[in-house]
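Hi support team,

I'm opening this ticket because the web form for multi-chain structure prediction keeps timing out on my end. I have pasted the exact lines I submitted so you can reproduce it. The total is 546 residues across two entries, so I didn't expect it to be a heavy job. Is there a limit I'm missing, or should I split the entries? Thanks in advance, R.K.
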Amino acid sequence: MKYLLITLFAVNSLFAANDFYYEFDKKVYIQENVTSFKSSNGIQEYKTTDGKIIKFKNEIVAQCKKDIQCIDDIKNLGINTIVKISSNFYYIKLNSSMNIFEYSQKIQELSSVQIAHPNFIKKRIFR
Amino acid sequence: MIKNNLIKHIVSLSSLTFLLIGCGGGSGGKETSLSKIVNLDAPSQFDTEPYYKYAWHFSSKSNSFSNNFNINPNSHINIENAWKITKGKYQVGGNLSQPVKIAVIDSNFNTSHEDYKDSIIAQCNLDNFPISSYPDLSSIPSNDIINYCNVNTNVSPSAGEYSHGTAVTSFITSKANSKGLVGAAPEAEIVLIKLPNDIARMNLAFEYARLMDVKVINNSWGTINGPDSSIISKLNELKNTYGINIVFASGNGDTNGIALNLDTDKDDEAELDSVIGVGATNKDNNITAYSNYGSTIDVIAPGGESIGVLGAFVTNNEVDHGPNSNGENIDTTNYSFTQGTSFSAPITTGVIALMISVNPNLTPDQIRTILIETADKINSETESYVDLVGDGTTSTFNTQRAYGKINAYAAVKKAQDMF
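Hello R.K., no limit was hit. The queue was backed up. Here is the completed structure from your submission:
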C-alpha cells in the first residue's frame, strides 16, 4: 500500500511537472486542478504554483512571429480549428481529448510562433 | 512589477529627443497659431451647464460648493484654457472640423444618458462573438466584426447592475447641452465596447476599436492576474503599428483602499510600456490614499476622494462620495459623485483627444512625453521629484505622484506648437 501511494504521488508529481504554459518564454507551472462541480460550459480551473487561479475552456490564443506564417506548423500538430482573429493572432480550438497544456507548449515551442497560451477567462476589476 | 520600467523611460527619453528635434510639419499644412486669437481670460464657456459648478476637477472658480467643501483652487487640470483652443474636433489636418474618435472599453453603459448619448457613434457587445463558427484556418474578415457589432449593440447594464462605464464615459464626452456638466473633450465622439471576459474576444474588442479608427482607447479596468502575453503583444501592436493611444487606470489600492506599489506588487495592465498609466488626485490637489503607484505609472489626474468627482450616475454605487446629502440639489438619478482612478483615466483620455485635435501627427510616445513634460509637480514644496534617467533633461518623477498632474492647457499648447 505504502509503495502504491508513493508511486501514485510520483506519477502525480510527474504530471504536475509537465503541466505548464508559457508567458512569453517563461514557464508558468500548474500546482493543481481546482475545477469544481460548479464549473459549467466546460470551463477548467487551475491553480498555478505562484497562487494564481486561471480559468479557460479547451482553447488557445497564439501569435505568429512577425511576418512569419505559422498556420501550417500548428496544423501539423493535428489541430484543425484555427481562426485568425486579428493581424497575426489566432484562436485555436482543441478537441476534448487534447491536453491544453501539452498543446500550448507544443505550439509555443514552434519556431514560427511568438506566443501561445490558453484562452484565459479573466476576472476583471473596474476601477 | 513588470520589469521593463527602464525601457519605458528610455522610450520616453527618446521620444523627447525626437520631440525637440522633430517639431513642425504635418499633413494638413501649418495653420495660424490658434493661441494667438484666444482670450485666455474669457469667462468659462460652460457656466450654463447646471452642474458645472461642482466640477472642481476642471474649474478653479470659487462658489458656495467650493467654499463649503474647502476645494483647493489648484486641484483642477487647467482645461478651461485648453477648451479655448479645442474641444475635441480637429483644428488642423485632413479631418478638419471632424470629431476625434475615442473608444471606451468597460463593463456596460447607459447609452441613453442625456449628457453623452449624442456623442456615441457605435457600440458593441462581443461577448458571444462566434469565433469557432468561422471556417478552419480562415480569418475573421474586418467587415464581419463591424457587421456583427452593427447588430450586437446591447452594452446596457442588466436591471440594477453596477454601471461603471456610464460614469467613465461621462468624464470624456459629456456634451455642452445645458444638462449636467461637460467631459474633457465635449466635442469628441465615442465608441462604446463592452469588455469581454476571455482573451480572444478581448483581442477582438481592441481590434474593433482599431477598425473604427479611434485615436485613444480608455481602459478603466484591470484583471486579477494582470495582463497575459497575447494582450501585451496586442497593445504593443496598436500603439506601435497603428499609433493608437491606450490609457489605463492605475487601480485603487488593496481591499482596504490603501495604495499598492506596483513595482513590488503583481503585474498590472497600467504598467505596460504601450499604455499611459494614470493615478488619482483629490480636491486638496494631492495624491489620493488609494491611487496605485510605481515607476511605470505616468501621470495623475483628478479622481476624487473625500469629495468625489461628479459624473453620470453609477448605478448601485455602494458609497456616496459627495455632498449629495448636504444640501446640494443634484439630480441623483442621472448624476453622482464618485471616486477612483477609473475617472482619472478618462479625464486624461479626453485631454489626449484634445492634443490630437490640434496635432494629428503626434505619435503615442510623443503624446506621453508631452503629458509628462507639461505635468504639474504637485506638492513639490514637501515632496521630492527626482530625475529617474539621470540625464538632467527628462521630467522629474515622484514615486506616488508619477511625473505629476496633467495640465491640459500646457499639453494642448505644446502639441499645437509642434504641428
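A quick check on our side: The longest strand of chain B covers residues 101-106. Let us know if the file doesn't open in your viewer.
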